[in-house]
User: What shape does this take?
Amino acid sequence: MRALGQFFQGRRRGVSNRKREVWRMSIGQELKKEFSTLTLVLMPIAIGINIVGGVFIVALKLPIYLDSIGTVLVGILAGPWAGAVTGLLANVIWGLTIDPVAFPFAITAFFIGLVAGFLGRAGMFRTLPRALLSGAIIGVMAATVSTPIVVYVFGGVTSSGSTFITAYLLATGRQLIQAVFSSSIISDVGDKLITCLVAYLIVRNLPARLRSRFAQARVLA
Amino acid sequence: MHLLTPATKLVGALGFLSLIFLFPWPWTAGIVLAVLSLLAAVSSLWRKFAGIVFRAALPYVLMLLVMQSLFFPGGATPLLRLAWFTVKLEGVMYATVTALRILAMVAVFVLVQMVTHPAAMMADLEQRGLSSKVTYVVVSTLNILPFLMGRAGAILDAQRSRGLETEGSILRRGRALLSLIGPLVVGTINDVQDRAVALELRGFSRTGTRTFLTDTSGPPCDRALRLVMWGLAAVGLLGRVVAWVWPG
Assistant: This one.
């Protein structure tokens, strides 16, 4: 795992061949470590936070979704694949309990967790500016993955205000995919920026005892 | 319909979804919607079913009709003119077809969810080979949700009583969000370690076969029905392939 982190910084430090071999060999072990019992207990809580966070948003009347906080947290703390599965299952459960429309976006959530995990491994959540950059990256990626879903499954319509932007862009003559992508970028980047900011602050303020227990968070200390 | 195994219902969902989205004929969704509504009516679930489906899909349908009727790029046949907008036929067609597809998709999910108990579904999937870790996560989440909701409400009240400003400028409300989410997350994560130990004590990560408490066998026609559903899924897929190979 340390080898993987070093792989990302390989360009700076010059990763030796032996270290690369260690990285390749321990993927299976890494996955097992990522899905330890501790992670499995964290995941329902993270999914719960995803869903319950919406309660706060509504109470505060903020114009964001903030439905990926748990996913990003699991990605940072436990690793990319755990984060990805969290996102996937979060959307599945959201679809089962709250709103069936969430099912197709499980793919987006999968990638949000995955990218958040890899960014966390690469140390992109160590400082505030880096965390914000991660938010932007994840936002762009989320918009990219969501756009085909919104276009082909929903015909360009979402349940948020970004549909108005899409409509405006359509009216000015753009194609549907472009219009949806542009409005998605605007809403998703903003939302993911805030999500990553909150995730960063939470991880920062986790008691050290808890932080050291998670497979990946040690890197952040 | 409540008696069928959850797996059959899931395969049924897959089959119908495949028909809705893959089969090239655009009005398939309408037929699927009609069939599902019939099933709901027969199982005396119609009211609840219709209510949920319409409530979930309504915003999409409305926005779709408005947006695509007025702004559909590249349509040729105008139907009527409203001020400076032109309602085009292609736009309305596209909107109706997509709206039907959304309605049908939501209907599939809602119907499956209404006739399937989540615990039974997880047990059935696990018996068919789904990892127990996944089923744990899903079942645990469903159980933890009411608890977390209560906790969130309590935190909201507690912070408010300590003078947290939940009205005002966006910046202030944003900072309030942090004071709300922080306690929620840290409080629940503190539980995590205890829960993990409790699970381990109950043999959670033990490998090997397990025996199950719930019985999820269905009526005799279950197997046949499941094959039919797989057939539907295949029909959808084949239809798409055929259309791709044979355009026009």
User: Anything to note?
Assistant: The CA atoms of residues 78 and 166 of chain A lie 36 Å apart. Chain A has two domains: 1-32, 35-220. Chain A touches chain B through 60 residues (CB under 8 Å).
